[in-house]
Specification:
With 426 residues, the protein is an alpha/beta fold. Helices cover 50% and strands 13% of the residues. It is built from 15 helices and eight strands.
């Protein structure tokens, strides 16, 4: 009786209740945080998995997606992001897998962690397979191992140009070019860099190649040109504008230390088309520049095209974006304007004086189908033109626009000796 009367139950009961409620709230907060982490891990794993599925499937299997512009652009942007991250997709899949494995031990239930583990595990397996194939293939082509690239997941930021010039005013518009100069007293070989964008968008700007080429002894003239619109079709002015910029270089060669006996053209996508067409037309004497004179056009010693739009006649029929390019750049379909397409298709510009041509292509390009690029390379072979065609497994269009991933590293590794061999050094 005395023990019962001496016990102070009312002194501890309130603290115990508060502690229990706080523990419950803490447990609930932890479960919510873990649930959010699992959802994020699932989304990351799904991104990696879908990217790898798109990379592995044959290009033609996505034809239904390609026929709808919005879907095509979504798939294209997602694949470019995948390639920009490169080997970091392995890290993302591994982290997601780790979250799925740890979650049940932290009270995360079973269903969602198992789902995350299944998605991320599959994604990790696929990305390891595609990465190994890429690394081995690139080693076979370049003799170098790029085990993990990019080294950092961010963009590769090149330095600013040494100067920006207005090389012409045409149609009431100032056309500009960025000039990157090497640190040398000798006259430098010139690389004319031409941006992509489907002939209807894009502009000059820093890329993983502009200042890098200058650091390796080459002057770079990175040019703008007039773009196609719904009402202004620039199929016959885009290459002429690039030629115009080259006549500007001719006039100002002494001022900027340019050796116009050593000239190359380089570009990606639409810029790849123009790099090839401009080089071929100049050497055959068929390019009329939109300013200056044809006599001021320097002969081109080498052309380099990354995923170049070499065959518009077929490409425009294969996707929604292709049809838009046909409408804006050329003005219609190949059936409507066969002559215009002959003027822009690269194969129609091949002559015996075409310069040595280096072509790089992603094998899962859903904008410029690899079959067309390979067919163009075969036509170069049949014509006896010195060339090299390199197809990099599992890469999408525009794989090298900003990141030092395996596609960019491959392009750099092959570009420099190509320039040194056929253009020369300063």
């Amino acid at each position: 009786m005395s023990n019962d009367l001496g016990r102070p139950p009312t002194l501890e009961a309130p603290d115990q209740g508060r502690s229990g409620r706080e523990g419950s709230r803490g447990s609930l907060g932890g479960r919510v945080a873990l649930g959010v982490l699992l959802v994020v891990a699932a989304l990351v794993a799904l991104f990696v998995l879908l990217g790898q599925i798109v990379a592995i499937l044959p290009v033609g299997w996505l034809s239904p997606v390609q026929s709808v512009l919005a879907l095509q652009l979504i798939a294209l942007i997602g694949s470019i992001k995948r390639d920009t991250l490169g080997a970091w997709n392995i890290v993302l899949a591994a982290l997601a897998l780790a979250v799925g494995a740890i979650a049940p031990r932290r009270g995360g239930g079973r269903r969602l962690p198992v789902t995350v583990s299944a998605i991320s595990g599959t994604a990790l397996l696929l990305v390891l397979v595609t990465t190994v194939v890429q690394v081995v293939t690139v080693h076979d082509e370049t003799g170098r191992w790029f085990i993990f690239s990019p080294a950092t997941p961010g963009s590769s930021v090149a330095r600013a140009p040494d100067t920006t010039v207005t090389y012409a005013t045409l149609g009431g518009r100032d056309l500009k070019a960025d000039l990157y100069l090497p640190k040398t007293s000798a006259a430098a070989p010139l690389v004319v860099s031409i941006h992509g964008g489907g002939f209807v968008s894009g502009s000059r700007g820093r890329t993983p190649y502009t200042s890098w080429l200058a650091d390796n002894g080459y002057a770079v003239l990175d040019v703008d040109y007039r773009l196609g619109t719904a009402t202004e079709h620039t199929w016959n002015t885009a290459d002429a504008d690039v030629g115009c910029a080259m006549t500007w270089a001719f006039v100002h060669a002494a001022e900027y230390g340019l050796d116009l006996g050593k000239v190359a053209t380089f570009g990606g996508s639409a810029g790849g088309n123009l790099a090839i067409n401009v080089a071929y037309k100049i050497n055959s004497g068929t390019l009329a520049p939109s300013c200056g004179t044809a006599a001021q056009l320097p002969r081109v010693q080498a052309a380099i095209g990354s995923y170049p739009v070499v065959d518009l006649s077929d490409s425009v029929l294969e996707s929604a974006y292709g049809r838009e390019v046909a409408s804006w750049y050329v003005g219609g379909t190949p059936t409507q304007y066969p002559g215009r397409y002959r003027a822009v298709d690269a194969a129609d510009q091949i002559t015996p004086v075409a310069p040595p041509t280096l072509i790089l292509q992603g094998s899962r390009d859903h904008l410029v189908y690899p079959d067309h690029t390979k067919a163009f390379a075969d036509k170069l072979a049949a014509a006896g033109i010195t060339h090299r065609y390199v197809e990099i497994p599992f890469l999408e269009h525009a794989y090298d626009t900003s990141s030092l991933n395996i596609g960019t590293e491959t392009t750099r590794t092959l570009m420099l000796p190509w320039l040194q061999k056929y253009v020369g050094t300063g």
